């Protein structure tokens, strides 16, 4: 039975607005929390938690904690995936959101290196691991809420709404940092974080997450479980150990899903963390950058992320019409070519060219990230769908996102400030993803209730 001919009994139990809001609000909060940390990893943490005489060393230490969260994500994927496939999507989504919110709020209260020494970095690492653990269970659950409740023939379109949380979370997090940095700016040090910002201003975005979590919990507590999961329970299809089932019978989907996401993750973190670092590094630094002030470059990034949001939504109808695999193959080929444009566009020194670079990169980001909301869940049956899609998505985060900022900074230094090797790194990741997609099957017509 194809997804386009499901009988009336399998029609969504949740209203369209409830599904869209519940899948969108949670990922917006989760990605907001993640971006708040990513921005602080560039602006704040090298100064307050990893002080060093060498600017690059401090930055690498800060990015190491940023990447450490990716190591915790597969653990969270297994834990929350088990809960999601055993107890249901709703309960698991509430638990992951609470975990993420508490960890982010706690970072806003941490003492710094000047107050407690190395323990400040240790506590920051622990909270960062908790963030990664929570995010390991968030995305898959939100994607399942969207796709398992989608009308016939519109699963990819509905699957873009949890993906849309990424650009929205980015804009909220970075605009909040921008406003705080602007209001606390010191005229004596234009373009640099002020003493007030470094002392207490940076904590506000972390503490503000508590308000957003309350809103997210209110929305998600109103959800009803999908027909797909309820049918699995009633038919005795729920497995005692979903992770064992996934590895034993669906290992190919785990492997292909992991590498299908690789280019998406590498592009994602190069376009956010690396470009922010490169764009705001002085042109006369030991490893030179573009020399923009933080406030100027963050507005440029927000401009680019608007394209991310628009083309995330555009990708859904394309994937529903032409298929997930075909759409992703075309976009991944474009990502490979985009990696060759890092030097003429990002490294060219022209503001219009940098703006075009950001718009193009984030457009590709939306087109590759959007279909994943349907593609990965559709690779697995209902009884291991949460676990399978979560493990594939989050193991890929180690190979892509955890390494991307660190590798990019290393390659950037190796090339004496040129982004050439960073672009080639993205092209290489794109080629790996292209092969994984070639080996994958089209999932457009799979029965989501199976």
From TrEMBL:
Q: What range does the record give for the signal peptide?
A: none
Swiss-Prot/TrEMBL keywords: Cell membrane, Membrane, Symport, Transmembrane, Transmembrane helix, Transport
Gene Ontology cellular-component terms for this entry are: plasma membrane
What InterPro entries does this protein's entry cite?
Answer: MFS (IPR011701), MFS_dom (IPR020846), MFS_trans_sf (IPR036259), Sugar_transporter_CS (IPR005829)
Q: What positions does the domain Major facilitator superfamily (MFS) profile occupy?
A: 19-444
One family from Pfam that matches here is MFS_1
Its main subcellular localisation, reduced to a broad class, is: membrane
**Gene Ontology molecular-function annotations:** symporter activity
Transmembrane regions: 20-45, 57-80, 92-110, 116-135, 156-180, 200-219, 249-272, 292-315, 327-347, 353-370, 391-414, 420-439
Similarity comment: family membership? Belongs to the major facilitator superfamily. Metabolite:H+ Symporter (MHS) family (TC 2.A.1.6) family.
Q: What is the protein name given in its UniProt record? A: Putative proline/betaine transporter
Q: Which organism is it from?
A: Leucobacter chromiiresistens
What is the organism lineage in this UniProt record?
Answer: Bacteria, Bacillati, Actinomycetota, Actinomycetes, Micrococcales
């Amino acid at each position: 039975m194809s997804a386009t001919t499901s009988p009336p009994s399998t029609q969504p139990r949740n209203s369209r607005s409830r599904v869209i809001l519940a899948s969108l609000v949670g990922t917006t909060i989760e990605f907001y929390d993640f971006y708040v940390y990513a921005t602080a990893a560039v602006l704040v943490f090298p100064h307050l938690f990893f002080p060093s005489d060498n600017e690059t060393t401090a930055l690498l230490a800060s990015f190491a904690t940023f990447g450490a969260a990716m190591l915790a994500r597969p653990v969270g994927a297994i834990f929350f995936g088990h809960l999601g496939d055993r107890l249901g999507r709703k309960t698991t989504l509430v638990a992951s959101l609470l975990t993420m919110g508490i960890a982010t709020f706690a970072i806003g209260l941490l003492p710094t290196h000047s107050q407690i020494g190395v323990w400040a970095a240790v506590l920051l690492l622990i909270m960062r691991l908790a963030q990664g653990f929570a995010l390991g269970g968030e995305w898959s659950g939100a994607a399942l809420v969207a796709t398992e409740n989608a009308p016939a023939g519109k699963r990819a379109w509905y699957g873009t709404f949890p993906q849309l949380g990424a650009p929205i979370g980015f804009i909220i997090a970075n605009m909040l940092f921008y406003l705080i940095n602007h209001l606390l700016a010191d005229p004596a040090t234009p373009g640099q974080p002020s003493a007030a910002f470094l002392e207490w201003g940076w904590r506000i975005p972390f503490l503000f997450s508590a308000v957003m979590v309350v809103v997210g919990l209110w929305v998600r507590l109103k959800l009803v479980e999908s027909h797909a999961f309820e049918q699995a329970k009633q038919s005795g299809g729920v497995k005692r150990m979903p992770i064992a089932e996934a590895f034993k019978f669906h290992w190919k989907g785990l492997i292909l899903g992991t590498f299908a996401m690789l280019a998406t993750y590498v592009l994602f973190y190069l376009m956010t963390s690396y470009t922010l670092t490169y764009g705001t590094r002085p042109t006369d630094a030991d490893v030179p950058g573009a020399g923009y002030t933080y406030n100027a470059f963050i507005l440029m990034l927000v401009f680019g992320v608007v394209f991310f949001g628009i083309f995330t939504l555009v990708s859904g109808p394309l994937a529903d019409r032409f298929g997930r695999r075909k759409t992703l193959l075309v976009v991944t080929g474009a990502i490979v070519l985009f990696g060759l444009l890092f030097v003429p566009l990002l490294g060219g020194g022209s503001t219009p060219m940098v703006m075009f670079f950001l718009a193009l990169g984030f457009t590709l980001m939306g087109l590759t990230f959007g279909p994943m909301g349907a593609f990965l869940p559709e690779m697995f049956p209902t009884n291991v769908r949460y676990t399978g899609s979560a493990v594939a998505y989050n193991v890929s985060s180690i190979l892509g996102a955890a390494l991307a900022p660190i590798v990019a900074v290393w390659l950037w230094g190796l090339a004496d400030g040129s982004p050439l090797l960073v672009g080639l790194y993205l092209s290489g990741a794109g080629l790996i993803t292209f092969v994984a997609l070639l080996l994958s099957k089209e999932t457009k017509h799979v029965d989501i209730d199976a």
